[in-house]
């Protein structure tokens, strides 16, 4: 199965929509352990992404689309999720430069590049109570599933489930990165907003592929 | 002259430090400021930082001073976006924003080189106040 450019645009639309729906929820999560702006910031960023993508020529390849999303997030989000998700999308774009459709292998590469980019930018690892706690298990589940010849829609479904488990796990650990780390152990008991938004994006990806 | 770029989540913070530093250096040092988002929220914008770095570039290097959290990541991202042309010419000072900015600006104003300005900015974190 391949993912076409049109699918990519549908996935982005879905992410824009889901972030908007969860704007208040993400901001509430952030209010508990951070600076109460995660939902607002991401919503502003993805609104700008939607506007920016509408101006791209129809011939634009997937790599350029992803890089454009990254650059837009970097310049509009404002909070730490700007450079983090910005780097993720830009690195993802680099590994599929010039492509108009994505193979299963490309999708694994995109996840890998995005994950590595975030780790490098945020100097964080799994277990630090960050978006990595959702993305890394999702990446592993996707890669394992595809290596075991599981079809892409189901592999993405498993990735989304793994991201959800990872997100829920952040409730049990204390933050070692970002504003929440000032709270140390008092951050236990709260979901990480970044892990939650990352799960929502991966879930959007899976939902679009599973419904088409 | 070495250029200075100040980065904060708050536009008002960098405007205030700019005012302080300019007063102490008689406006001689090129100082750029990047703070807040384009739509007026608190936050940092890597592309704005990148533009400010270019603006204060007089060919002798640029020292960037940042506040907390995303300011560091956005500044790192800005340096990456500038590419090879600026490699090694721009560095983020591991220093407190206000004290580092004043120290770096004064040092730059007396004509010190890039390494010296960066060093003086970073030494600002050891400054005892009492």
Number of helices of chain B: 5
Major sheet of chain B, described briefly? 4 strands, parallel
Q: Separation of termini of chain B?
A: 33 Å
* Separate helix tally of chain A: 9
Main pleated sheet of chain A: 2 strands, antiparallel
- Order of H and E elements of chain B: EHEHEHEHH
What structural class do helix, strand and pairing data of chain A support? Answer: mainly alpha
Query: Using only CA atoms, what is the Rg of chain B?
Result: 13 Å
Could you give the order of strands across the largest sheet of chain A?
Answer: 1-2
Main-sheet strand order of chain B equals 2-1-3-4
Order of helices and strands of chain A: EHHHHHEHHHH
Low-confidence stretches of chain B: none
List the helices and strands and how they pair.
The complex is a heterodimer of chains A (212) and B (130).
Chain A: E1 3-4, H1 5-21, H2 23-33, H3 38-54, H4 62-76, H5 81-95, E2 101-102, H6 104-122, H7 132-147, H8 152-169, H9 193-211
Antiparallel strand pairs in A: 1-2
Helix pairs in contact in A: 1-3, 1-9, 2-3, 2-9, 3-4, 4-5, 5-6, 6-7, 7-8, 7-9, 8-9
Chain B: E1 3-8, H1 11-25, E2 31-35, H2 46-55, E3 62-66, H3 70-82, E4 90-92, H4 97-109, H5 114-123
Parallel strand pairs in B: 1-2, 1-3, 3-4
Helix pairs in contact in B: 1-4, 2-3, 4-5
Please tell me about this protein's structure.
The complex is a heterodimer of chains A (212) and B (130). Chain A is mostly helical and 212 residues long. Chain A is built from nine helices and two strands; from the N terminus they run E-H-H-H-H-H-E-H-H-H-H. Chain A has helices at 5-21, 23-33, 38-54, 62-76, 81-95, 104-122, 132-147, 152-169, 193-211; strands at residues 3-4, 101-102. A two-stranded antiparallel sheet of chain A has the order 1-2. Chain A starts with a strand and ends with a helix. The model of chain A has no long low-confidence stretch (mean pLDDT 96). Chain B is of the alpha/beta class and 130 residues long. Chain B has helices at 11-25, 46-55, 70-82, 97-109, 114-123; strands spanning 3-8, 31-35, 62-66, 90-92. Chain B has a four-stranded parallel sheet, with helices on both faces. In chain B, helix 1 packs parallel to helix 4 (97-109), helix 2 packs across helix 3 and helix 4 runs antiparallel to helix 5 (114-123). Chain B is globular and about 35 Å long. Chain B starts with a strand and ends in a 7-residue tail after the last helix. The A-B interface holds A 35, 37, 40-41, 44, 71, 74-84, 86-87, 121-122, 178-179 and B 9, 36-39, 41-48, 69-70, 73-74, 76-77.
